[in-house]
Amino acid sequence: MNKHLRSSLFLGILTIPFLSANAQTKVKTTPVFENGQAQIVPEFTDAAKWIRTDLWVETNFDTDGDGKKDRMYVDVTRPFQTETEGLKLPVIYESSPYYSGVAPDVEGGFWDVNHELGEAGKARVHAEVTRTGKRPIISNSQTATWVPRGFIVVHSCSPGTGLSQGSPTVGGENESLAPKAVIDWLNGRANGYTSADGNENVKAYWTTGKVGMTGTSYNGTIPLAAATTGVKGLEVIIPIAPNTSYYHYYRSNGLVRSPGGYLGEDVDVLYDFIHSGDESKRAYSNATIRDAEMKNGQDRITGDYNDFWAGRDYLNHMKPMKAAMLMAHGFNDWNVMPEHSYRIYKKAKEMGLETAIYYHQNGHGGQPPLEMMNKWFTHYLFGIDNGIQKEENKAFIVRENDDLSNPTTYKDYPNPEAKPVSFYLTKGAPKVGGLSTIASSSQGKEKLVDNYSFAGESLARAENTDHRLLYVSPKLTKDVHLSGVPKITIKLASSKPAANLSVWLVSLPWNEGRATKITDNIITRGWADPQNHASSRKGEAMIPGKFYQVSFDLQPDDQIIKKGQQIGLMIFSSDKEFTLHPEPGTELTVDFEGTQLTLPIVGGEKVFSDAISNN
Q: Do 398 and 331 meet the contact criterion of CB atoms below 8 Å apart?
């Protein structure tokens, strides 16, 4: 260690020069690190002096049918010292399909959900995107945060969007290979050009080649997509509310299910929404991707898992992944649901990758605290030993009344102290039955009648209704902490060959009013197709009146249910906000002998028993 470095460490502040090999002048301005984080450097803060350029990076694929390799449109924002002083810096990279505009809402643009199960529904309308944006600035996201701290910021438009060539595939292979090509270019392994069809080369001489990626939603999916290629140079990713499987986004355990807030959306609808690329190439892409590959693969008839969906499930492609990962998500994200992050986090741990997870109690979006992101980027991109890789606590969970910047740390998620506790039903329909850890014999069966016109909230609040079955625990006299993935097994029969099956776990009594928090009422949810009771890949029509046992996971959660509340299990059929809307009248009969709910309770059954002991 040299003298300068020793003295800087002694002061708790570290400055490291990153000098280009061909630099003619000595570096005067360098990144500064304090408390393990990159600090704002005044000389990097003048946005008017930032160097902003654009280019096209050549990929190894052709997805727009013109016989030439597709090129991705890229912008670069860097401190001027990378030019005048030969300073070389790492990169924060965000890629997106949204930078150049999206399709407008048009009547009939979503699939009509008002039809029987097993039908495709009537044809929908295709909306066109009017491309927007000015060169050379694709986006200003990330620049104000990271450039003043000594990072270079790079953006790129994903295939078939903006000025990037190719076709959007919504999770297809080219959406992984496109960011890989950009990272290869940053490391001198791919070609960049000053124009979409020219040969004037652009070199990334101003970077160390170390790259970190981040973004939210689709922009958070792309870092994971890039990481699954194992591309050298991608050191760390921070995906926020990423869609890690398009099957899990548009289907659930064999059931056609919409993401929350977008009833009737499917993979081809999202394709239309983002298709802002070259107008002259759109007809080819529409015919090849949307009207052939997607039409043949998405299967709105059965909702079964198949090879089309398997190819768009990043869990299946993680073997080459080497990048460290800080995953972030909201437990009440009913758009991109929390299972998306958990399944990838779990696999990354099994692979031995450096990983941690940040969960909060809100909905879609919500990035980790800046301090946390800074430490991850600083460690993996600048090589600063700030201790994050040595931390024993791998889960950071924002408790119900805390600020997003103040997560509580736990050893892992699910909480290692959580143990599965089994619950059984006692009859009560059409009113409210019981939920108990003690199985009661001879409880028999109870029936509900499907009617999608009643929203889930109304059913949970109803004292008496034929359209759901509701079973509640005794009132809690102490708080109960749930952490993990609840599981449900339901033995049921249907009056028709096909039926929706929806399950909500709720906290009662239902709270309402201006002070109601997002965590007050719905604990978690789940949906399944009883036809897929034996296999997610092949459903079979039910024989009316015959009983089948259906088992599936509800969405992951970590929530403290406050004393005074009751935990309620609500079983119903069509969920107005998420499922198809078949004609009302289907009857579902639940057999208590084969029905069981399993909740992951911190402290296990003893803690739950103590929490209801005074009833």
A: no
pLDDT tens string 177-188:
999 999 999 999
Position 474, amino acid = P
Q: How many CB atoms lie within 10 A of CB 371?
A: 12
4 is a catalytic site residue = no
Of residues 343, 401, 411, 327, the one with CA closest to residue 560: 401
Q: How far apart are CA 224 and CA 237, in angstroms?
A: 7
Give the integer Cα–Cα distance in Å for 227 and 95. Answer: 13
Residue 85's nearest CA partner among 52, 34, 43 is: 43
Task: Dump pLDDT digits (tens) for 415-452.
Answer: 999 999 999 999 999 999 999 999 988 889 999 999 99
Strand spans (E) along 261-374 = 324-330, 355-360
The active-site residue, picked from 155, 317, 360, 364, is 364
Longest dimension (CA), the chain: 87
- From 333, 450, 529, 558, active-site residue: 333
Q: Helices H, strands E: what count in the chain?
A: 14, 29
Residue with tokens 């995906």: 239
Distances from the Cα of 360 to the Cα of 225, 398, 563, angstroms: 23, 5, 21
The one catalytic residue in 156, 164, 217, 245 is 217
User: For strand 487-494 and strand 51-58, is the pairing parallel, antiparallel, or unpaired?
Assistant: unpaired
CB neighbours of residue 28 within 10 Å: 11
Residue 337 φ then ψ, to 5°: -75, 155
Using alpha carbons, list the distances in angstroms from residue 482 to 333, 409, 557: 17, 16, 7
pLDDT above 90: residue 18:
no
Ranges of H-type helices in 151-306: 174-186, 218-227, 246-250, 267-274, 282-285, 295-297
Active-site residue flag, 217: yes
Helix (H, G, I), strand (E, B) or coil at 95: strand
- Cα 344 to Cα 347: distance, rounded to the nearest angstrom: 5
The token duo for 200 is 């004037």
